[in-house]
Amino acid sequence: MENKKTIRSKFVLLVVLIVLSSCLYLYARIFHKAFDSGIALTMPVALRILSRSATSLLGMIVSATLIAVVSLAFQTITENRVLTPSMLGFDSVFLATQSVLVFFASNIPLMGKLFANPYYNFFITTAIMLLVSVLMYSIMLRKNKNNIAFLLLFGLILSSIVQSLTNYIEVLLDPQQFQQLKAVTTVSITNMNEQIIYIAAPAMVLLTFLFVKRSREFDVMQLGESNAKSLGVPYTSRVNETLILIALAMAITTALIGPVTFLGLLGVNIARELFKTYRHSILFFGSILVSILCLVLGQGIVELLRYATPVTVLIDLVGGSYLIFLILKERKL
Question: What is the dihedral of CA 56, 57, 61, 62, to 10 degrees?
Fold first, then answer.
């Protein structure tokens, strides 16, 4: 394992790169767009754009942090480097919840109010995702057995069923309702739900603290269930608690910026290669910094290219290619 000085220098390098990427993003949002379109940039306009850009930057940091910590924890409890929490079908549950709210909004006034209010909408979506997760865990992980493989299979099946239900509801919607649904579910970095960022940020700090606090237990859990139990870790209860925290974090990130499937895979595995350690106390922060760098730098490049393509497409392209590389690498081993 590398010495502390080398690890510290890599952390400093990542922080510097994140600061430079943030400056690139802010430059692209404030100055490049104005110069490119020939608009005179006055101080009030620049400050207004800076305020919105700073909020978007905070949203990217919150989302990247949550995706990084849950992806690392999920890979540890599944003992697999190529899996992500998105495989449990959380994104599909989010889409289905919004579809149901829109479908009943015109006939039930209460549903309309819940859908229109971003805070009520966020809390309802989060609660439903947690409820679905708890039901999944209680069914698939019962009798003190760590049936993670069955849980993943169940998540894939659930995702397909819920997606079919969502498609059926979309067919029943009138054009105005369909537009409302797409406005809510087509969430991205440039169209994030800014009103819930100040709820998501404290939740991110709390969830990150809870994951990092259990770093030593994760170090032991990656040795396998039998070894972890023999070393005194309550493996089954820790897995169940971790999956619930993962569900909560995924609900927040999906509602905030939408699905970013391969960001966690990319951030965690680059951090593993960069720091060459098994210690989760280092890997958590390394994965967070790498994920933030990927998201902010990617968005800055997209802004400079005038939205030629969403940053999620770039991340999924790079992450998907890296996933294929990891699969081929594991096969050779």
Answer: -30
Q: 147 falls in which pLDDT band (50, 70, 90)? A: low
Confidence of residue 146 (pLDDT cuts 50, 70, 90): low
String of DSSP letters for 290-329: HHHHHHHHHHHHHHHTTSSS-HHHHHHHHHHHHHHHHHHH
**What mean pLDDT comes out for the span 21-47?**
76
User: What is the distance between the alpha carbons of residues 308 and 130, in angstroms, rounded to a whole number?
Assistant: 36
Chain CA centroid to CA 129, Å: 14
Alpha carbon distance 314, 309 (integer Å): 8
Which H or E element spans position 61? helix 43-78
Contact 258, 313 (CB under 8 A): no
Q: What backbone phi and psi angles, to 5 degrees, belong to 270?
A: -65, -40
Q: How many angstroms separate the CA atoms of 117 and 287, rounded?
A: 34
Instruction: Tell me the range of 1-15, 110-124, 286-300, 317-331 where mean pLDDT is highest.
Output: 286-300
Looking at per-residue pLDDT, the higher value among 273 and 158 belongs to 273
Q: For the chain, give the mean pLDDT.
A: 80
Q: Which residues contact 248 (CB under 8 A, 6 or more apart)?
A: 126, 129, 130, 203, 207
Of 153, 157, 249, residue with least CA distance to 206: 249
Residue 262, token pair as written in the block: 């391969």
Residues 218 and 245 sit within 8 Å (Cβ to Cβ): no
**Rounded CA gap, 176 and 160, in Å?**
26
Are 72 and 280 a contacting pair, CB within 8 Å?
A: yes
Range 212-215, long-range pairs (CB < 8 A, 24+ positions): 212/69, 212/280, 212/281, 212/284, 212/285, 214/238, 214/242, 214/280, 215/279, 215/280, 215/281, 215/284
Return d(Cα 152, Cα 71) in angstroms, integer: 14
pLDDT per position as a tens digit, 274-333: 888 889 999 999 999 999 999 899 888 888 877 667 777 788 788 778 778 777 776 655
Give the Cα separation of 290 and 306 in Å (integer).
Answer: 24
